[in-house]
């Protein structure tokens, strides 16, 4: 039984740990064995502390035996995203500038997860400074897709998603600006949730009023996502946008009568025909659950301008000093984003904020008519790992490494909760995710819809076999 503990859902495993049917040492040891067997091929976990994890597991077992109350995540191993600060453990941001950086404090979400009893085992791979939805960097190389090792795992939480998909950890933290929780979840057949900004507060933060980016949970099931979110969410006085209420999830809900808008191209985006074919099969699932589904979506015509303008501004402010000191250490696409941000004028930023207000209102108008929006997560299936990004989508050229991510980053501007849930596979066996979006602050409804779809389809129960194929040689990203 111990050797198969890595297959257990986090919710079930946490219950077994609280009942002392298994020990934290057994659970951590099983996942460390799984990491040793799989990670050399997938390259999802890039820093590993097995001795420290086993010591922490033993201490957790001793506290529970002495009568201490078990936290919600008691004994569950987790490797944290390598952009989230971890006190005493290397945090590189995927950059050679920080290859040996060891922080002296934790990011707030790390603190909350560990206080709930989770056991730190290491860190998961990211793109350089989390820029882009393909996980590769000059420090650790590329993370490979568990369903096809020659393909991308997505990003920027690609290491986290690949580690989940292969059973190297039962839960994972991540963050999302333009799709960094949703895209890797779609590529790796797991579940990723971008919560309403402020649901999971950020500290420390260089831009504490920012609502483009947010931390959030990944897991193999919606119930496990909800479990982790209940720990990550909640008010904090150091965050000016933190929502006041803690998060508690009751995922059981009858969807009869829900009004759902289905937008397969989000207003005309190029989407790979194989992705469209998988998503088309989702519509009758919702109809069968009693929902009223029709093709409709919010007006997102200005959302791309808003996102790219505000993102460039943030990149110029956040990375400018390091870029000035070490320009050669930045990949060309990231350097270009920083330069774009520096060319922005006051009028550019003013127009972006005014357009953002119009997109926000368009979203509110849409959610007055519909309870939820269904859309693609990614416009393409997982692409070759040796590419920096897909250069064509449905025959349309993609001129930058951001173009193919529009199906996620346009939704970002709505300020709404968005869930990526497994929706099926292409004929080649590559995963495709469905994006479920609801009104801002209706995070629970998003998860309830996702849980119902998950139960009706069970696509997330299809495990990969990363030992089946060896990675092929290809040009470096």
Strand content: 15-25%
**Named CATH topology:** Amidase signature (AS) enzymes
Computed over alpha carbons, the radius of gyration is 21 Å
Q: Supply the number of helical segments.
A: 14
Number of self-contained structural domains? 1
Taking pLDDT < 50 over at least 5 consecutive residues as the criterion, the unreliable ranges are 472-477
Write structural notes for this entry.
By secondary structure, the chain is an alpha+beta fold. It has a single domain (2-297, 370-461), classed as Alpha-Beta Complex (Amidase signature (AS) enzymes). The chain has helices at 10-18, 24-42, 50-65, 108-115, 158-165, 182-188, 222-232, 273-280, 282-288, 303-325, 332-343, 346-369, 406-412, 443-457; strands at residues 45-48, 77-81, 119-124, 136-137, 141-142, 144-145, 148-152, 171-176, 191-194, 214-219, 259-262, 292-295, 372-376, 392-393, 396-397, 418-425, 431-437. The strands form 5 sheets. Strands 8-10-9-16-17-13-11-12 form an 8-stranded mixed β-sheet, sandwiched between helices. A 3-stranded mixed β-sheet has the order 1-3-2. Strand 2 (77-81), helix 4 and strand 3 (119-124) form a beta-alpha-beta unit. The longest helix has 24 residues, at 346-369. Residues 472-477 have low confidence and may be disordered.
Helix-strand blueprint:
Blueprint: H1 10-18, H2 24-42, E1 45-48, H3 50-65, E2 77-81, H4 108-115, E3 119-124, E4 136-137, E5 141-142, E6 144-145, E7 148-152, H5 158-165, E8 171-176, H6 182-188, E9 191-194, E10 214-219, H7 222-232, E11 259-262, H8 273-280, H9 282-288, E12 292-295, H10 303-325, H11 332-343, H12 346-369, E13 372-376, E14 392-393, E15 396-397, H13 406-412, E16 418-425, E17 431-437, H14 443-457
Parallel strand pairs: 2-3, 11-12, 11-13
Antiparallel strand pairs: 1-3, 4-5, 6-7, 8-10, 9-10, 9-16, 13-17, 14-15, 16-17
Helix pairs in contact: 2-3, 5-6, 10-11, 10-12
